[in-house]
Amino acid sequence: MEDATPDSKAVGIEGTVTRATGSWYDVRTRSRKVRATIRGKFRLIAADVTNPVVIGDRVILQMNADGTGVITDIQDRKNKLSRRAAGRKIGREHVIAANIDVAWIVQSTLFPKLNPGLIDRFLVMAGVYNIPANIVINKTDLIEPAFEDTIDFWEELYINLGYSVYRTSASHGTGFERVRKDMTDKISVIVGQSGVGKSSILNRIQSDLELRTGEISKSTGKGVHTTTFAALYLLDNGGYVADTPGLREFGLVDIAPADLAHFFVEFQDLAESCHFPNCTHDHEPECRVQTAAAENEIAPERYNSYLNILGSLQKGVRDRGR
C-alpha cells in the first residue's frame, strides 16, 4: 500500500480553495483540482471560528502519494465576509468567504418576502471588511400592484445611498446581462435566505453550472436549503462566483457598538454635528441623527434598523461580560 503521508521536503503547490465541506476541501491549482484535508494545527489556532479554511482562501498544498493533498499553509487574506455562527448567544465567527472583490445579497419580492433588516446587516458587514456590496431583488415576475410601491421604495432608498440594485427574474431569465457584466473578472460571493433564488440566478448567469434548486415550503413560506456547502465556481466570462448556504440570520462580528454608525452611510456627515463625540444616536440629547430621522431627513426605516442592530451588539457585549 502506498504511503499517503505528505513529503515534508516537497515543494508546496499554490492553489485557491473552491469548495469547503468541513473535512475536505477542493483546491484549484494552476493545472488541476485537488481534494485536500487540513492539518489539525489550523483548527487549534482558529478555535474561535467555525471554519479555519474557507472558499477563496489561497493556500499551499503538499501532495500525497494517492493524489490527494494536505493544506500546509494559508496565505494572508486581503479581506473576508463573516457572520456570527447561528444559534449561539455569544457565538463563534463563521467566515463565509475570503479574498472577495464584490459581495451580493439576494432578496426576493415574495416567498420569502424582501427583508430590509437582513440587507442592512449584510451592508454593515461588507462595510466592516471594505467589500463593495450590491443588492439583487429577484422574482420580479411575482410583483403585484398591491406591493409594487413597497419594492420601488426599497430599491430607491438603497440606490440613493449609493448601492447598486439589480432586478431579476430567474424563472423568466430577465435582468441578468448587467449582473453577468458586473461579475466579470471578479471574485463574487452571493448570500441570502434559502428560497430567494441564489442557485437559480447562478444557473442563469452560467447555464452549465446546473446547480440544484429547491421549492418553497408551503407551511412556512420560506425556502428549503438546497446549497449545503459553500463553493466557488469559475465563470466563462472571467472571475469566480461563490454560492453559499441559505442564511436564517446575519449576526455581526468584528464590530463594536460605538462603530456601527460609521457603516450607515447616511449617518456619517450628520454624526459630526452631534453634541457628544461618542454619541450612539440612541438616547443622547442634541443628537443630529435622531433629529434627522424624526424629520424624515433620513429614512426612519433605516434609523429603526440601526437601533435594532445597535441593541443586538450591545447585548452581545453584555453577554460576553458575564
How does this model look, in words?
This protein has 322 residues and is of the alpha/beta class. Strand 1 and strand 2 form a beta hairpin. A six-stranded mixed sheet has the order 10-9-8-11-13-12, sandwiched between helices. Strands 1-2-3-5-4 form a five-stranded mixed β-barrel. It is built from eight helices and 13 strands. 26% of the residues lie in helices and 23% in strands. It has helices spanning 40-45, 116-128, 145-160, 176-183, 198-205, 268-271, 288-294, 300-321, and strands at residues 13-20, 25-29, 33-38, 58-63, 69-74, 80-84, 93-98, 102-108, 133-138, 164-167, 186-191, 231-234, 239-243. The longest helix has 22 residues, at 300-321. The protein folds into three domains: 13-74, OB fold (Dihydrolipoamide Acetyltransferase, E2P) (Beta Barrel), CATH 2.40.50; 90-243, Rossmann fold (3-Layer(aba) Sandwich), CATH 3.40.50.300; 257-317, Orthogonal Bundle (Ribonucleotide Reductase Protein R1, domain 1).
